[in-house]
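Consider the tokenized backbone below.
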């Protein structure tokens, strides 16, 4: 291989990308507007949860507990008759329907333990889980405050808890979603851009030009990898600086240089995978249909959407073969926790090994496929 050939072919790829304004607009959109909207629009905490109340007691205590459901966690509670409870839940009008039984306050004052029924539309999974805990804490604290105004809720508990939240002290979803969206965008574009570049060579009829040039398949493949990888890396760093850290005000704890190294290793493996998938197809439509399920699996099961530890053991082992699993782990350790090279070098080493494996398989396939592309 000659580095001059790789550099020249890579510059050709950059010019091809420059001549495609739709593709450039897509890259800008994914690393800017998409990151911002997902960071602001997707919330894991309880926010604006709709609440309906069936108050069969209508006592000062029940009214005070209802009034303790405040914004922004909950919308203003709406009173409904008991006959509409099943209807509003079936129609999805409210996430929570709270029922206060008759003589609720009297039973509380007499030392009994009356039940407050909380009916939940569990199809709203995040709100259902977190909101139920919120409601229990609010009602328990409100009842104790009503019975003993001078006594604090915490003083009656047998244990005292001190909670210290690291890396995201206010539990803001935007801090997590913004960085994970940037990482997922690297995965998506890394596979699509390189694979599409190879398919574009066939559709534009430029494969014949490459075959008559004194260049090897390895040089052609490496040129596509470094050119497309460079664009994605620059877009990633700009997105972290301008959108995540600048507009969204999310702190970046670790070394950007170390994250750049991890991104380069990841891009090497994921772009090789993109070329491998492109060699298995004969048109852009086929490539899109093939790459879509691969991206979805890597997106959902890499640990960026749900914790890897919550998955079945066999699936955890299977996903170790995906470079996105190790890149998500690296990015979280570096950007969230401020980890240094001494803490992340095993994951870097795994990315190198996976990159070499994917590159070798892709190159073998590419050598066989490039002749048939003419």
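A designed sequence for it:
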């Amino acid at each position: 291989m000659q580095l001059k050939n790789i550099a020249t072919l890579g510059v050709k790829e950059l010019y091809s990308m420059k001549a495609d304004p739709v593709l450039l607009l897509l890259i800008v959109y994914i690393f800017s507007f998409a990151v911002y909207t997902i960071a602001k629009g997707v919330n894991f905490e309880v926010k604006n949860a709709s609440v309906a109340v069936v108050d069969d007691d209508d006592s000062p205590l029940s009214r005070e507990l209802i009034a303790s459901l405040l914004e922004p966690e909950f919308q203003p509670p709406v009173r409904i008759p008991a006959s509409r409870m099943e209807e509003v839940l079936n129609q999805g009008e409210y996430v929570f329907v709270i029922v206060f039984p008759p003589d609720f306050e009297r039973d509380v004052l007499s030392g009994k333990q009356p039940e407050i029924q909380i009916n939940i539309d569990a199809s709203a999974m995040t709100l259902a889980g977190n909101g139920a805990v919120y409601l229990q804490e609010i009602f328990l604290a409100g009842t104790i405050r009503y019975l003993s105004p001078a006594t604090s809720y915490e003083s009656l508990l047998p244990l005292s808890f001190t909670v210290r939240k690291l890396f995201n002290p206010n539990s803001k979803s935007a801090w997590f979603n913004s960085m994970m969206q940037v990482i997922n965008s690297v995965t998506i574009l890394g596979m699509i851009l390189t694979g599409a570049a190879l398919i574009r060579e066939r559709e534009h009829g430029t494969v014949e030009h490459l075959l008559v040039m004194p260049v090897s398949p390895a040089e052609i493949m490496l040129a596509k990898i470094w050119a497309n990888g460079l664009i994605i890396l620059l877009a990633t760093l700009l997105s972290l600086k301008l959108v995540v850290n600048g507009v969204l005000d999310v702190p970046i704890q670790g070394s950007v240089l170390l994250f750049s190294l991890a991104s380069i290793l990841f891009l090497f493996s994921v772009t090789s995978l993109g070329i491998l998938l492109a060699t298995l197809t004969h048109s852009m439509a086929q490539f899109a249909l093939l790459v879509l399920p691969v991206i979805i699996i890597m997106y959902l099961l890499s640990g960026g959407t749900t914790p890897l530890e919550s998955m079945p053991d066999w699936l955890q082992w299977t996903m170790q073969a995906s470079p996105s699993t190790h890149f998500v782990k690296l990015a979280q350790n570096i950007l969230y926790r401020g980890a240094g090279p001494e803490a992340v070098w095993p994951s870097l080493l795994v990315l190198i090994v996976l990159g070499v494996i994917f590159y070798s398989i892709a190159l073998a396939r590419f050598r066989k496929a490039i002749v048939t592309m003419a």
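The chain has 15 helices and four strands.
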